[in-house]
Amino acid sequence: MKANIFFGSNEVSSESYVDRKSPFSSEVVSQSALCSVSDVEKALSIASHATKEAAKSTISQRCSWLLDVASKLREQKEEFARTITDEVAKPISAARIEVDRAIETITLSAETMRTMSGETINTDAMPSGRKTTAFFKRVPCGVVVAITPFNFPLNLTAHKLAPALVAGNCVVLKPTPEAPLTSYKFAKLFIQSEYAIKDALSVVYGDAEVGGALVSSIIPRVISFTGSVPVGNIITKSAGIKKIALELGGNAATFIDSSADLELASDRCAIGAFANSGQVCISLQRIYVHEDIYDTFAQKLVEKAEKLKVGSPYEDDTFMSSLIDDEAINRASSWVTSAIKEGARALTPIKSEGRIFNPCVMADVTDDMNIICEEAFAPIVSLVKVKTFDDAIIKMNNSPYGLQFSIFTNSLKNTQIAIDELDAGGVVVNDMPTLRFDIAPYGGMKLSGVGREGPRFAIEEMSEIKSIVIV
Question: CATH number of the domain at 252-437, out of 3.40.309.10, 2.40.128.260, 3.40.50.1000, 3.40.50.1260?
Answer without folding.
Answer: 3.40.309.10
